């Protein structure tokens, strides 16, 4: 168990980085930060995330989750729209590797609503997701859920959510028993009560990419 001094000393740079990340706009970073300085901040965030005691308590889990969000937001500002979808994929893979070190895994849950244009309808679906998980296709690979949605006729009624789950909540299934969607893409099976809404990373819909905060979907200002 980490002592109080370690946690205190670890928390100080988190507060500093959060303050910096929240205040830096893309233009400010280009004018005031060299590429070397920006990469040093990014590296410090990555190291803190990967080595910190983020699974020791609920309090530290919240800090770890917030720190991952800070890191991702900073990386998005740093890259702007130059690196586009390739950058987003790289960031997602990095975040997934960090989560794996903490015993978590990023998965992708396909969603459907007859009121696809109504963002409040999607919010209701997400609110009920922990209790209605059994009927949802769950993918390990984001490309698979994206392929499934692209094959649908009315895409506005389709969406998916990226979320962290504990690896222990993944059910082990024999290779010949792995469920598949109708396109032959493998699906995951999870234990009951393995979905926690505070672990949602992003909600992806035809209208854009959203973050989930306090039961509400907030559209990202920058395209992922």
From TrEMBL:
Residues passing through the membrane, by range: none
Short name of one Pfam family: Dot_icm_IcmQ
UniProt-listed InterPro entries: Dot_Icm_IcmQ, Dot_Icm_IcmQ_C
Protein name: IcmQ protein
Species in which this protein is naturally found: Legionella donaldsonii
């Amino acid at each position: 168990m980490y002592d109080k001094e370690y946690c205190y000393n670890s928390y100080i740079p988190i507060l500093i980085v959060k303050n910096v990340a929240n205040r830096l706009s893309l233009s400010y970073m280009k004018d005031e930060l060299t590429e070397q300085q920006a990469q040093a901040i990014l590296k410090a965030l990555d190291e803190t995330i990967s080595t910190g005691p983020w699974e020791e308590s609920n309090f530290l889990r919240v800090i770890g989750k917030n720190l991952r969000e800070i890191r991702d937001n900073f990386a998005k500002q740093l890259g702007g729209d130059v690196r586009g979808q390739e950058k987003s994929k790289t960031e997602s893979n990095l975040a997934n590797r960090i989560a794996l070190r903490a015993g978590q895994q990023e998965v992708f849950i396909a969603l459907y609503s007859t009121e696809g244009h109504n963002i409040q309808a999607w919010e209701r679906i997400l609110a009920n997701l922990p209790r209605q998980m059994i009927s949802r296709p769950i993918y390990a690979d984001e490309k698979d859920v994206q392929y499934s949605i692209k094959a649908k006729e009315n895409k506005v009624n389709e969406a998916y959510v990226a979320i962290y789950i504990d690896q222990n909540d993944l059910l082990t299934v024999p290779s010949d028993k792995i469920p598949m969607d109708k396109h032959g893409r493998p699906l995951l099976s999870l234990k009951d009560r393995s979905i926690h809404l505070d672990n949602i990373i992003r909600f992806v819909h035809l209208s854009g990419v959203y973050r989930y905060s306090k039961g509400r979907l907030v559209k990202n200002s920058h395209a992922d």
